[in-house]
Amino acid sequence: MRYLGLDLGRATIGLAVADDVLRTARPLRTLRRRGDEADLAALRQVVDEYEVGRLVVGLPLNMDGTQGPSARMARAFADRLGALALPVELFDERLSTFEAVSRLRERGFSSRAMRDKVDAEAAAVILQGWLDRGTP
């Protein structure tokens, strides 16, 4: 089975993919948000192309574990992902963007070069965290 990790933002959705054999998440790409219907259609294409069987959506909790507007937005979007007829799981994504930026800097990317990669890298951080937790 393949898994698709999503780092949901207001303007973009970072995507990462992994499978249950290698269990290593890798950044895929970043989608520009164009409205729920268009976003779901773009995600459907990715799901079909990579034969995804489960979605993992980052849940941006506050540092104290409470939910703010971004977490509520992620929960609402995860509900809308039900239209893709796949299991959807939420995973605490605190500090995923910080980790993504650190990884990209370690690989020598400049701030400018990181701009288009950080969301997909954050999705990989989220998905890898979910995999490492020992989920299916």
Give the helix/strand layout.
Blueprint lengths: L1 E7 L3 E8 L6 E7 L3 H15 L1 E8 L9 H12 L7 E5 L3 H11 L4 H4 L3 H15 L4
Parallel strand pairs: 1-4, 4-5
Antiparallel strand pairs: 1-2, 2-3
Give a structural overview.
The structure is a single chain. It contains five helices and five strands; from the N terminus they run βββαβαβααα. By secondary structure, the chain is of the alpha/beta class. α3 packs across α5. The radius of gyration is 14 Å and the shape is globular. 35% of the residues are buried. The mean pLDDT is 92.
Rg calc: 14 Å
Shape: globular
Order of adjacent strands in the largest pleated sheet:
3-2-1-4-5
The percent of residues in helical segments reads 40-55%
Q: What's the helix-strand series?
A: EEEHEHEHHH
Termini separation? 9 Å
Low confidence ranges: none
Annotation, overall tally of beta strands: 5
Number of helical elements: 5
Q: Major sheet: size, sense and barrel closure?
A: 5 strands, mixed
Strand content: 25-35%
- Roughly what is the average pLDDT, rounded to an integer? 92
Question: What class would the helix/strand composition place it in?
Answer: alpha/beta
Descriptors:
136 residues; 5 helices; alpha/beta; 5 strands; 5-stranded mixed beta sheet
Task: Compose a concise summary of this entry.
The chain is of the alpha/beta class and 136 residues long. The chain has helices spanning 36-50, 69-80, 96-106, 111-114, 118-132, and strands at 2-8, 12-19, 26-32, 52-59, 88-92. The chain is built from 5 helices and 5 strands.
